[in-house]
């Protein structure tokens, strides 16, 4: 199974190719420039007995060297981010699809975001006794017999 921390490590591994520091503390606590800050926003998880579906938005903030004089630096970093997060993100032995990469400059900070969505199989082989235990834990109403007449 792919954990959220595995995804964040994979993103940080890609960002480290730029040679720019990655902040792990809250940006309100102060930080060195240039640097990145990464967040996984709105993670969604749904599951059934066979697989888990996860979806999230990845938000990357790039704080350029100079807060005010940064247009060329930001354009260069935008190109690098678009290249690093082009189609797939390698996490463990999987390649996750990167959807809708967007960049925007707000108050001198480059914001890069994209969506990740994937299915993960459960790490468990199901046996008849597991199914019984599952339905005891998560009871559901079973369908009854349905009779109908053909006209």
Strand content: 35-45%
pLDDT < 50 stretches? none
The chain-level structural class is alpha+beta
- Strand numbers in spatial order across the main sheet: 1-2-3-6-5-4
Which overall shape is indicated by the principal axes computed on the Cα atoms?
elongated
The number of E-state strands comes to 6
Q: Which H/E pattern describes the elements? A: HEEEHEEEH
Structural overview:
The chain is an alpha+beta fold and 151 residues long. It has one domain: Phage tail protein-like (STM4215-like). The protein is 24% helix and 39% strand. The chain has a six-stranded mixed sheet with strand order 1-2-3-6-5-4. The longest helix has 14 residues, at 71-84. The chain is elongated.
SSE layout and pairing:
Blueprint: H1 4-15, E1 21-23, E2 35-47, E3 51-63, H2 71-84, E4 88-91, E5 94-106, E6 109-121, H3 128-137
Parallel strand pairs: 1-2
Antiparallel strand pairs: 2-3, 3-6, 4-5, 5-6
């Amino acid at each position: 199974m792919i954990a959220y921390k595995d995804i964040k490590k994979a993103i940080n591994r890609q960002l480290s190719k730029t040679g720019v520091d990655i902040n792990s503390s809250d940006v309100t606590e102060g930080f060195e420039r240039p640097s990145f800050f990464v967040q996984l926003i709105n993670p969604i998880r749904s599951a059934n007995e066979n697989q888990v579906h996860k979806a999230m938005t990845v938000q990357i903030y790039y704080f350029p060297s100079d807060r005010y004089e940064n247009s060329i630096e930001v354009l260069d970093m935008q190109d690098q981010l678009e290249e690093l997060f082009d189609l797939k993100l390698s996490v463990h032995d999987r390649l996750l699809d990167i959807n809708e990469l967007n960049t925007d400059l707000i108050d001198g900070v480059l914001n890069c975001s994209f969506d990740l969505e994937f299915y993960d199989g459960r790490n468990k082989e199901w046996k008849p006794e597991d199914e019984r235990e599952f339905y005891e834990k998560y009871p559901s109403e079973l369908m009854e017999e349905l009779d109908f007449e053909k006209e």
